[in-house]
Design goal:
The structure is a homotetramer of 305-residue chains. Chain A has 2 domains: 101 residues, Alpha-Beta Plaits, CATH 3.30.70.260; 194 residues, Rossmann fold (3-Layer(aba) Sandwich). Chain A has 9 helices and 13 strands. In chain A, helix 1 runs antiparallel to helix 3 and helix 4 runs parallel beside helix 9. Chain A starts with a strand and ends with a strand.
């Protein structure tokens, strides 16, 4: 298992940012494993992600991994003083007007999964979580249907059924928000959850609700995008994962992918192929979020690979 | 060189269509090389493409082709009576309410290429034409700019400059239509031609004007799609080739393709990457049209591969 | 649910084949829903797949399907006499030296799934089976490990643990073959089963054992292909599903796919990305096999889409 | 036009590298536009690319570029003292055992293009060069055939025909090397040049000869890879650009891409589709090399995007 910390920064661009940040990390003895940065020259913004070792790597090797080598990669001789660095970094961050977060990758974010009756994304996320691909806690699964109950049970995750209709939407959201708060949820994943969240709900989790839309946004927003794609006669279909904002299907895009179709494919075929796309773009988005690879700004994302 | 004919059919679906068509071809001694068909069950339509030998194949082998084998593939011992078959097929076609075309692939359609100042698609089409990948005659290149003149000269194709502004659009189109008529043009290819054609012009060439739009339609219709894609923060950009109808960017889609981009890519990068996509989707569309692989119906295409 | 039959044919190519087959289907009143054919001109072979309605379509609409329309697509007014057609077709098939199979799609092939300790392909196949994407019976899951037991239990499928080492391989295969026979298995799917099957085993199931190899064959045959890919510094990794023959990693390829990697990706990353590729290429191969879309000849496949 | 410099570094990994380099750039007042780095933890190596402004950006905006904004992006108020920085950097580089290069992007590398009779890659590279996509000088085109002469003439580039057979290979190479030296060539691009270069030739241009091989290496090395791919029945074909080393088709891979094929595609179709792949992977490799984005180590490349 990795024993690292990630520092994520965005701030107004200015000269010497990298030198200042790298210098401070160096002074504290950090062993940088990955570093990536980005400038938006139009907006004058700077983005940075640094991952560094904070202690000896540990744990069983992955399938076919190189054992000793892989372990060595994250090696650290001693323990990095993460809190000491945090204290030292704060004044620099203030001076440079940074938004920043610094967190140990050992601390797993707490995630709630929402779904409706289609379970392909849910089943995929749960399998990836079980195999360690998604480094998070999943204290609760929420659905307005009961289809997911058995699957939740198989993975030993508490399931909460919160029925929702247009009439009961406000009440249902209050219940859901109480659940999220009770479970101290940090990220909400809408795995084909077919209810539209209210602005009030969305505002409680800024850049912390990930949705999958079954089209190549901004084409085919709204309901039944595979029907719309079939009607338009497109030659590729797509899926999009994005952060949820108050405007439907309009939040910052995290990932998109497409698949080739032909005149032979009926709506049913598009739906079936789309399921694979949805799984891929949603699981990638969740993984990148959990790995602290994503920064949001304006209506866009920076995804450090 | 292939010595084949292609029969393209669309008609109301009914039982026995394949048997009737295949039976007639068999009676006339056709050696079928490729056959493909499609039903649109929703609309009750039937589509078919049959390619068959009409004489001995001939000509130099392609790069690395198998020489004798390749020649043998299209072999035909004797000459198929294409006109005799046409005469025999007509009553069947009438009976079954077919739209159909039957043509020798040796007869090369006459194509006019239009462009404005960006020449990447034009240069690509001309190179493919020169190497035999596009089986057509190109009697004329038309542009509202002069940039293409030298390139046209290199390939020995007459160039006509027809300047067009909003004020002179009607007049310019009259000139262009006269050119097309004079050259007996059967297909117009808009290789990044930045003028909008009038409905009157479009109606003269139904399903015979191919355009390339530099986005993944129906996303980002209209002007400056790469700017729009950059502003929206998409993770893939696309290009679309389609038949031109009276509604801008709305005609039947022939081909689409996409390329992955990231937050690092500025509008300039999107433009550069898009050029490769545009070349690919436009050249494929033109090739498929020339090879009689495309059938239009409603606002869609069937593309037999 | 579809109520159709599929006729799969391969035979020496000769004129009039389509006319003969289509004619016979027409005489028997078949309503052809899909037909596709292929000629290998080098080898002089002809391949054909015809799917036709044999009774009224039935069952609940799929997600977002068009309800009445979708039902109508496969509609058949009355019942096709499948056995009568079979009897009538046999002499034609003999005359034309055809290998052929004719089967109702309602009859679900019986499939055995094999795996070792990595379960991603198994989990994926089982989920797709549960949702109806894979139309088969799965009477048994076989593994030389116990990891799959719980998953098999969740899906209610009997699990048989057959440990195998080099020393006990013969004995183990005898046990496996008895299981396959006992369950009247028609297709064996090796979902990352890490044992090499003996020629004797393979010969019992010609073109009926599907394996997934975690490389883009023929590159990186044998063990640890992700390590080999990493060592070679390739920019894309791949996965391949294929029928198993007596020569390791050499059977007819059914499907391949690739994913882009970069210098940032370590072996662990290749393994993780590869899992998604493996799932995709294996599940597609199994689906196409079950849908009677694949014909093997020589060391190749024809896959009718 | 960009007015920037690029610093490329590789060296043994150790703590504080980024801080040292970034600190020195900061002291000299560099305005960093892009920075990227990579560690190979297995080999303990560090790689870095930094691009920074060295003077005011200048020149006409690209197609659809944002004019003022784009100009502003590379703006620099004053002139960076590149030679002063070089002098200051040298002792740091020595201390840290760096291999490094520092160059102004305004200085265009001198490139020789080699080809044989197939011109698709050559035509593509020349068009991209003409439009500014490839920032280099092309003082000479060399071929063992005459097919390219007219094309070279159109672009105004001197053409040298150096016939080569097995018997005259040594002599021909001597002639070629003299040409390269006379033109002070820094990069040799083999645009489907079908002669095998001798080890002596290759050693003169380490990591400075780029070749395109028409397969997805390491599959199908050697001659006639499309035939081999067709015979093996693969479902995707590929192309690979790589640096040339003394071992045929074995040098560090720069870029690869693939295209889907089917049983319908004959060798001729593979050749035709492959041409597009070859163009793409070769032109990308050349562009990345010219943009100083590639570092070679062992038998691999780091490509900073």
């Amino acid at each position: 298992m990795k024993n690292t910390a990630v520092l994520l920064i965005d701030c107004p661009d200015r000269r010497g940012l990298v030198a200042r940040v790298a210098g401070l990390l160096f002074e504290h003895g950090a062993n940088i494993l990955h570093a990536d940065q980005h400038q938006d020259h139009d907006l004058g913004l700077f983005f940075m992600r640094v991952e560094f070792a904070i202690g000896p790597a540990d744990g069983a090797p992955l399938e076919e991994s190189r054992g000793g080598d892989a372990a060595r990669a994250g090696a650290f001789d001693g323990n990095f003083d993460l809190e000491g660095f945090r204290t030292a970094f704060a004044p620099l961050a203030r001076e440079l007007a940074m938004r920043w977060q610094l967190s140990s990758t050992a601390r797993k974010p707490r995630v709630a999964l929402f779904c409706s009756q289609y379970l392909h994304c849910m089943a995929d996320l749960l399998y990836r979580w079980r195999t360690g691909e998604l480094a998070c806690e999943i204290p609760v699964i929420v659905s307005n249907h009961r289809e997911v109950e058995k699957l939740a049970g198989f993975y030993g995750i508490p399931f909460e059924c919160v029925p929702a209709t247009a009439a009961t939407r406000t009440e249902a959201e209050a219940l859901e928000l109480a659940l999220l708060e009770g479970h101290r949820i940090e990220l909400v994943v809408l795995a084909r959850y077919m209810q539209i969240l209210s602005p009030a709900f969305v505002q409680r989790y800024p850049a912390a609700i990930i949705n999958v839309h079954h089209s190549f946004l901004p084409a085919f927003t709204g309901a039944r995008p595979y029907h719309a794609a079939h009607a338009r006669g497109v030659k590729l279909i797509g899926a999009t994962s994005h952060y949820v904002t108050e405007v439907l299907d309009d939040g910052p895009i995290i990932e998109q992918d497409v698949a080739r179709i032909s005149h032979r494919d009926q709506v049913e075929d598009l739906v079936a192929r789309g399921r694979d796309l949805e799984r891929m773009v949603l699981s990638r988005a969740v993984r990148w979020h959990l790995d602290r690879r994503i920064l949001c700004y304006g209506n866009k994302t920076v995804v450090f690979d």
